[in-house]
Amino acid sequence: MNINQEQLVVFKTVMETGSFSAAARQLGKVPSAVSMAISNLEIDLNLHLFERIGREPQPTLQAKVLYERTNHLLIEMNQWKQHAFGLSSGIETELNIVVVSELLHSRWTDYIVLLEQQFPQLQINIFSAPQEDAQQMILTGKAHLALMFEREHIEANEQFVELMKESLIPVASVHHPLCQNQKVSYEEIFQSRQIVVASRDRNIKPELLFSKDAWRTDNHHSACRLISQGLGWGVLPTEMLIEQPTLKKKLKALQFSDFTPKFDYFIDLVWSKEQPLGKAAQFLIHHIRNKRKM
Prior knowledge:
- This protein is an alpha/beta fold.
- 42% of the residues lie in helices and 22% in strands.
- It contains 11 helices and 11 strands.
- It is elongated, with a radius of gyration of 30 Å.
């Protein structure tokens, strides 16, 4: 059996127009070419597709059953061709992007929408991870791109471009002892348990760790729940509190009296110099760079 796309298109057109002559007009062919294509399809399938009785061919039950799947098959064949063309032109088979947990409330999906519009057949996989783990995913090739906070120490094989600014805010439950005073000292912070979003690797020290006693979690949602229950203080994305106004009734922003830690960060799009990037990843990088020049 050797069925090609042109045969399927002819079959579909005959089914939809109701005659060989109408299908020929729509396809820009002569009626004899359409009739021959259907006859060859019947031979290839070993099926009788049309009853040639009267002026117009009547589809058989088998033809009606096959027609229901023809549209899907033609769509899949076109997608396959587009995907193959993409691969030949340098588009990656898939694009793995990791987003740091605290940045899930930022407008990172705008970049995914842009990629989908430019490369509709590209498979995009999104992961979420703490800052340290996201960095490791880039360095080990498990992710092609990462949306991360700016880092104090840039690895030699990292490359990045700035995207936007994002703010974090230190908070505690309104019932937590730290919220009893208008401002808290460094010593009070140091002595109070902190809920910190950190790597799953216990050997990696969290960057935003201020307290001597800390509970770790790998995402800001569970951190928020623990902080809301009064189990410790922590640092959460400002955007998270804006999106969820009810949190403002449960949490209070902490004001420090004798030190000012940095909670405003640039967000970077990061990739590895050692990992070859496909056309989609390069497109996004160039898009962001051009936007910064405007």
